[in-house]
Design goal:
By secondary structure, the chain is of the alpha+beta class. Helices cover 43% and strands 15% of the residues.
Length: 340
């Protein structure tokens, strides 16, 4: 049967017998009167979320309403048994009104009669409350079990999500620290080429005898490989993120970044092999920040015209600082516009 989500709230219904009986109340220790009765209310949009079928929803709430209605009538009878004249109690809605009960007239024997009358009323009320609670007990136990099971399921799901988040963070941090990235641009206005040296036909990790054979991707991949210097120092992904973010902030026009398809596919495959499912764009946004969007050749930074940029430097999402490795403006053995 199809389940739906509703709200459950455990309400502690106070009986307030002393307040109801007023000055005519005389406590009877032998009357087993509880101070409160616990009832589960099943109301959409209120309380703790709980799955149930439509039939369960209706049955649970009807049982609670029946219990509360029975207690309301018992409390009204208890009030009248103490000499009250006007009362209306509705524990279902929480509303009620009554006239107060004054002190009994002090005729001979009035105190004894007051004690006896209050004791009888308390005994009758205790019996009626016990019956109402007992009749409601099976439904209360059923709802309580469902609440316990759902809390355990939510707790397990939360713990699993936390473990997955920690695992994802560990995997992404490990990948971000590997120094396998290179980039180059021939000059302002020219595309920036980005590759992984361990996934190309040249450089470290290629496995090629001469270092010049085309890697996966054929002639197009070989042309990409030849555009980046073999002896360029490799960067970590965090350093690459710093460099490309810095270049985007200095650029006078949108930066054209072209990622080697093998680098994108290889990064996604490495994440998937360790049970982290995400696209290359999502992986890169985790490092470089959310201001990157899909481009025809991989992620590209959102261009902000120079007149609209904040004057203060922005912190690196990669965590290595803006003045670190990988800058486009020279001063390092790799990645500078003026170095090629």
């Amino acid at each position: 049967m199809t389940r739906e989500w509703t709200g459950v709230s455990l309400e502690n219904v106070r009986l307030e017998v002393a307040e109801i009986a007023g000055l005519a109340f005389r406590p009877d220790p032998s009357a087993a009167l509880p101070e409160r009765v616990e009832v589960y209310r099943i109301l959409d949009g209120r309380g703790e979320p709980l799955p149930c079928t439509p039939a369960e929803h209706e049955r649970w709430e009807l049982a609670a309403v029946a219990c509360l209605g029975r207690l309301s009538r018992a409390l009204e009878d208890f009030y009248r048994a103490h000499g009250g004249t006007m009362i209306e109690i509705d524990l279902v809605t929480g509303r009620g009104i009554r006239y107060g009960i004054g002190r009994p007239r002090r005729w001979p024997g009035w105190e004894r009669r007051a004690v006896e009358r209050s004791a009888r009323a308390q005994q009758v009320l205790a019996l009626e409350v016990a019956r109402a609670v007992e009749d409601y007990r099976p439904v209360r136990a059923e709802v309580a079990l469902r609440v316990t099971e759902e809390r355990a399921a939510r707790r397990a799901a939360m713990e699993a999500e936390q473990r997955a988040t920690r695992h994802r963070r560990t995997v992404l941090d490990e990948l971000a620290q590997r120094r396998v990235w290179q980039y180059r641009s021939a000059g302002p206005g020219e595309p920036v080429l980005v590759r992984r040296v361990d996934l190309t036909g040249t450089g470290a990790g290629a496995g090629a005898g001469t270092g010049t054979e085309p890697g996966p991707g054929g002639a197009a991949a070989a042309a990409f490989d030849s555009a980046v210097l073999i002896d360029q120092e490799s960067l970590s992904a965090r350093e690459l993120a710093d460099a490309l973010n810095a270049a985007a902030r200095r650029a006078e026009s949108p930066v054209d970044i072209r990622w080697d398809e093998r680098a994108r596919a290889g990064t996604e495959a490495e994440c998937l092999a360790r049970e982290v499912r995400l696209t290359f764009l999502e992986w890169w946004q985790d490092l470089a920040g959310p201001s990157w969007r899909p481009g025809p050749h991989g992620p590209v930074p959102v261009f902000v015209p120079p007149g609209q940029r904040a004057s203060a430097p922005r912190p690196s999402f990669g965590g290595t600082g803006m003045g670190g490795t990988g800058g486009f403006s020279g001063g390092h053995s790799y990645g500078g516009f003026g170095g090629y």
